[in-house]
Fold these 3 entries.
Entry 1:
Amino acid sequence: MDDIRETSSILRNSNGPHRKLFDVTEFYRMAEAGVFARHPRVELIEGEIIEMAPIGGLHIRAVMALNQILVLAAAGRFWVSIQNPLRLDDSSEPEPDLVLLRLPEDRTRTKEPPRAADAALVVEVAHTSVQYDTRVKMPLYARYGIPESWIVDVDAASITVYRSPTHDGYEDIKTYQEAERIVPLALPGVLIEVADIVTN
């Protein structure tokens, strides 16, 4: 237990000389031991424990608006997961703001966190984390074959859509402004008004 607590201070921004990478088993053991009590919003990215930015009002509004839209549009076809873990491998388990998940064959026996193969759409809502989401999380989602990912930039009032994943990143990237609409790949025929998500 002591060795777990000793590593609790090793976050991404640490300037100390020691650096230890973790796997999801260690990550969960640390959470169960209360290591993250002072840092309730953390995620595991390529073995590193990342402290997530606080959630502000515009962020909350964007998540709620998109949740309402997608729950209605995807009813019976997908689950909408809000700020829950998405396991990519044994060293990465991010917590996207929203994931559109393919329904499991047996919905009553789902015990493990959803995995990349379950995700049809991943959404990150960004305020101070735009650069991090762009440089780190989008390439990570692409590497694991998630067909579509979005960054909702609440400050710029825009949504950047990433499609056509490859091991090196997404090949198709387009930013949509307030007056535009997006049709998610997983929901053909569903028009989402950008202004309904990001209006300041």
Note: The helical segments are 2-6, 24-32, 57-74, 130-143, 194-198.
Entry 2:
Amino acid sequence: MGFVPEIIGAGVALASAAGLCTYGVVADESQMFGRTLVAPPEPGQLALTFDDGPNPAATPRLLETLAKRGARATFFLIGDYVLREPALTREIAAAGHSVGNHTMHHLWLPRHPSATIRAELLACNAAIEQTLGAPATLFRAPHGAKRPAAMRIAQELGMQTVQWNLMVGDWKNRSAEDILQRLRNGIAANQRRGRGTNAVLHDGSQFEPRADRTATVDAVAMLLDALPSETRFVTPPQWHE
């Protein structure tokens, strides 16, 4: 029975390796499979990023809210929605915000082969280039599930992968006050770590092109009113430079 410990040991090693790979795929700040942009050691900097748009039911008011404070943000857009809302996509870019690739159909990339991942990124970039005249240089995987193949393909297509260090779950039917408190707590926690904040929020939804994101927009408005005047709004391209 001397082989039993060896089998158990092998099983533990496999489980550990699987757990490590899972961490590398889904952990917000993991650099295991390659460099991602998260946030620099600049506690006064705040990057507001918005996923799953453009959304005609929420994005226009969000743009107005950001403009009132002169805040620049980054919008990771679903390619299919870009084709549905080209004018709104152009409005985002015209306001000075960065636009990123969030795939064509918001697939869970770890379930798909490299050929499908490449097709998703290419199609989304084609939609963005058709609308704005240039492809995206930033990529965020749906759900942040940064499979190594996705990061490699993004790099081959000239895009840097962007993650985050603050997620508040604003898609979970939370109130604006709850979202606001989570944002403030997360920003304070990052500042204590000596880091800037890269907050991921949602102006759209993978399930509904006109999703109700009123609570998110209200929370952002309240946050901008409450932040110190010296807060520096940045976008990931600035960190990349």
Note: The longest helix spans residues 3-26.
Entry 3:
Amino acid sequence: MISFPSCKINLGLHILFKREDHYHEVETVMYPIPLRDILEIVPADALTFTSSGLPIPGDVADNLCLKAYHLLSTDFALPPVHIHLHKIIPMGGGLGGGSSNGAFTLKLLNDLFKLNLSSDILREKAAQLGSDCAFFIENSPQICTGRGEITRKMEVDLSNYYLKVVNLGVHISTAEAYAGVIPVTPSASLKNIVLGDITTWKELLKNDFEEGVFKNHPELELAKNKLYQEGAIYASMTGSGSTLFGIFTYEPKHSFKNASIEEVLFLG
């Protein structure tokens, strides 16, 4: 069976406080976008994982696709499978591609072996894999709280807009991103802002990671400003970075000559 794990952008992201479990309490609206990997799972004689496309750093055993298989194996006697992932979504850029891969593996295994797990149970399983994984079970606009694993549907619709996604190849570790954040209580409701007029987002929406990240990597702030200069209604860094995006009413041209990734996507 084959599926196409997508990724997400964050429409605003608030870091509220550091919790006793050392995680940070967050509030964000995640929106799925049509930039996708390709995931195939077929029965096999032994459990194997292979990949193509963008190289995946780190130990294969740490890949969330394999972790998803082992997680379900604790409850079900799953037969061995061959998992192949063709990687298109850039890693470490705040797009949640790895989280998507893990969540889509859970869904694909559920369908392949007719496990009949509900969406609620799949979300619980996904939350054990990572903070953003639960979002990709429904893969629809959602407001996410807690570590990001508590999700509620949001009726926000960006269809008929264009999205430009830009990654300049800057690596930002999670530790670096959080080191530049001072948690604060937001003055306005993120939900109300996002459900309001999109033309107000530029002034009202905020990603709390941006201030610290932009101090260390001013080229990212310049890139965000360039998106506005090109006519974006709203531009932001997604997640903890370093990918940037701009929302347009028309199809923007490719203009970042040194970008490692520059995609123009129609959200209709």
Note: The radius of gyration is 18 Å.
